[in-house]
Design brief:
The chain is of the alpha+beta class. It has four helices and eight strands. Helix 2 packs across helix 3. The protein is elongated and about 65 Å long.
Length: about 160
């Protein structure tokens, strides 16, 4: 297995990935579902549940469901502007021993034994070095065959990494 993927991450792609990853979490889905239920009940009852004991809970859930996308936008903009390596053109080279990440201002080699988690979602490969930090690899349609090769390699290998796809 030897292949490379080269890509320059845009702020729009970074924002879309952040929203995708956030809205896959069960807690975020639950908060949004509860906010929707509360708003529907508020409309159906013509506001009569407003003076109920549940109104403060409902308002908190609605505020959270509105705050999450705003917080994501603020965080994405701040992170993208402050991390110059995010918007460099980066080449990811994969081999049986590990993978290398090469940008305009950095170069690193990582072996598969130290990968914490590999998550493959539509259009992306996320290689986590720990529970919070990942290499964000945008995958195009021309790379789908390489993604399948990578999946087979990781699945058949004896790695400790969590595999999700």
């Amino acid at each position: 297995m030897n292949f490379s993927i080269q890509h320059q991450l845009t702020q729009k792609e970074y924002r879309q990935l952040s929203f995708t990853l956030t809205y896959q979490k069960w807690f975020i889905i639950l908060v949004n579902a509860l906010a929707l239920v509360y708003l529907v009940l508020l409309i159906i009852t013509k506001g009569s549940i407003w003076n109920n004991d549940t109104s403060s809970f409902g308002v908190a859930v609605v505020v959270l469901s509105v705050w999450y996308p705003i917080a994501i936008l603020i965080g994405v903009n701040r992170n993208y502007k402050s991390n110059y390596r995010l918007n460099e053109e980066i080449t990811y080279s994969f081999s049986d021993e590990g993978y290398s990440v090469t940008g305009e201002s950095f170069n690193s080699q990582l072996n598969w034994e130290k990968v914490y988690k590999v998550k493959i979602i539509k259009g992306w490969i996320l290689l986590y070095s720990n529970s919070r930090i990942a290499s964000l690899i945008k995958v195009g349609a021309e790379d789908e065959n390489n993604v399948e090769i990578l999946k087979a390699f990781l699945k058949n290998g004896n790695f400790k990494a969590k595999l999700k796809w």
